[in-house]
Amino acid sequence: xxxxxVSTYKNSIGCDTSSWWNSQYTLRMSINVKAPAESxxxxxxxxxxxxxxxxxxxxxxxxxTGKDFRIVYMDPYCRFxxxxxxVHPSSQWSRGDTSIWFPVPQKIEAGxxxxxxxxxxxxxxxxxxQVPMDSIFDDFENFNSPPAEGRFKIFNHGQAxxxxxxxxxxxxxxxxxxxxxxxxLKRNKRFGSGIAVETSLSIVDFxxxxxTISMGQRQEDFRFKDNRLYLVVKEGEKExxxxxxxxxxxxxxxxxxxxxxxxxNDSSILRVNGRNIAKKNRPPIEFxxxxxxxxxxxxxxxxxxxxxYLARKIQEHDDEIEVSLGAAHGFN
Length: 332
Known about the structure:
The chain is mostly beta strands. The chain has two domains: 3-135, no CATH class; 139-313, Jelly Rolls, CATH 2.60.120. The chain has one helix at 53-58; strands at residues 27-34, 46-51, 70-74, 80-83, 86-87, 98-103, 113-114, 117-121, 139-141, 152-155, 161-164, 167-171, 183-187, 195-204, 210-215, 218-225, 228-235, 238-243, 247-250, 255-263, 268-276, 290-295, 303-313, 322-325, 329-330. Strand 19 and strand 20 (255-263) form a beta hairpin. The longest helix has 6 residues, at 53-58. It is elongated and about 70 Å long. The protein starts with 26 loop residues before the first strand and ends with a strand. The relative contact order is 0.21.
């Protein structure tokens, strides 16, 4: 496609956005971010989109490592700025649903969108750029190695803690566990309103019995049965089970918990996240993120593998932020 065939527009002070950031990147597509109707988006707020990066790789327009996939912003003064981007730790490059996060490069007023943000790609000679997770998230740990002393409190009841294949691994002892207490971790940092925290863990070799998941100030009782996860619902002396699938539990305060569950061949993946947003007539609470499991009974030598932990900014109407991609255009 020739340069002249690229769609163009003038931004708010007249920059011609058909100009190209770097000719070594021969394709680009626009990224549009629209703020919710009722709230603005502050500069630096993390937003995300998903792409079929596997298809891009198979089509020969992007590298398997994503090293040539860059996000660039043209500011109102016609200057280009590369914007840091990362793949969410639960995702990866060369997948059909690669999840990419980046900070909004300027404030977006309520109901408005931003122009001049692009994804550039198809450059086989691009250098690999390591973008730190904490350049986008407020707090992050990938457990490739022991965290810095004092960052986390680990509940392991004297059992060994290992760090292998990018996970913090805790293995239960071969003894009854009904009175032993929780296994898990706590981040030794207090957060106020406007923060979401998340972890992902896999559980290997555990029986279909009851256990409790704790997240922040929330506790819920669950059962694992027939490769499915159920919430235990109690009404007086009656007890029933509700199958869990991305369900949200709301508290009386401004704190919410979301739990997602996948059952795999040899393990189960559990992603737990919570968010703390100040609500009208509800004072914001402070919390230290706690992720733990308390088994009422469990198979000996059960292993819990924590894959990552992160905290990021969150605001009301976060789920109403729209991020969309335009069609790819070329440069000659």
